UniProtKB/TrEMBL annotation:
Residues 119-190 form the COQ9 C-terminal domain. It comes from the Bacteria. This is COQ9 family protein. The keyword Metal-binding does not apply. Belongs to the COQ9 family. Pathway: Cofactor biosynthesis; ubiquinone biosynthesis. Keywords: Lipid-binding, Transit peptide, Ubiquinone biosynthesis.
Length: 218
């Protein structure tokens, strides 16, 4: 049971897990909101008002609740001993485990987020989750890498969710294999990008080599 939320945002976050459970049966609807509120001892009318903006507000609350649980369960100090690819894998796997009990709600949420009118909000939510994961993984980039990393991870996470939503393999083995391949692709890309963007003096230059051969250092 939820103890008196102090704000509508608090109410949305507190109700999100129960709402996801109700959405398995009732979809992302006011019926699900009222069922979740009743189960958690919250005034159903107050809950309906908190989610008056409709399904995307409900889905956003679920995503924000997962973001918060992820940050609490996997702080940077816990991930520090891992390699960067292991950190990203652990963070995405945490999110997959969080939605696993509510796969039907996930499928319905993905369908709603894919609607053209919901694309801006869906992209913003995806960016926020990717940003949260990179920050927990220890990323401190402030240049354009900040943006490319989040766009890349956001696309990987979205694709992995789509695979996961329809994965019937044992222990979601197909999703795990898909995620491993995508992370490996990103690591290769980041290494290649790092080589291309090394400081000019660190890169091999045929012209500089010929100059040194012609005018050897004394």
């Amino acid at each position: 049971m939820i103890t008196s939320p102090t704000s509508l945002d608090d109410m949305r976050l507190a109700l999100a897990p129960a709402l996801a459970e109700a959405a398995v049966w009732d979809g992302w609807s006011e019926t699900a909101v009222r069922a979740a509120a009743a189960a958690q001892g919250v005034d159903p009318d107050a809950a309906a008002f908190a989610f008056k903006d409709g399904p995307m507000a409900m889905i956003a609350a679920w995503i924000h609740a997962i973001d918060a649980d992820m940050a609490a369960s996997l702080p940077l100090e816990r991930l520090a001993a891992m390699k960067i690819r292991e950190r990203i894998h652990a963070l995405i796997q945490f999110r997959l485990d969080a939605v696993a009990p509510h796969k039907e709600a996930l499928r319905r949420a993905l369908a709603i987020m894919a609607m053209p009118q919901n694309a801006p909000k869906a992209l913003k939510l995806g960016w926020g989750s990717a940003d949260a994961m990179w920050r927990l993984a220890g990323d401190v980039a402030t240049d354009y890498n900040h943006y490319t990393k989040r766009m890349t991870l956001g696309s990987i996470y979205a694709a992995t969710l789509a695979v996961f939503a329809n994965d019937e393999s044992a222990d979601h083995a197909d999703t795990r294999a898909f995620l491993d391949r995508r992370i490996e692709d990103v690591m290769r890309f980041e290494k290649a990008k790092g080589r291309l963007l090394r400081p000019r003096e660190e890169m091999f230059s045929p012209a500089r080599l010929l100059g040194r051969l012609r005018y050897p250092a004394r």
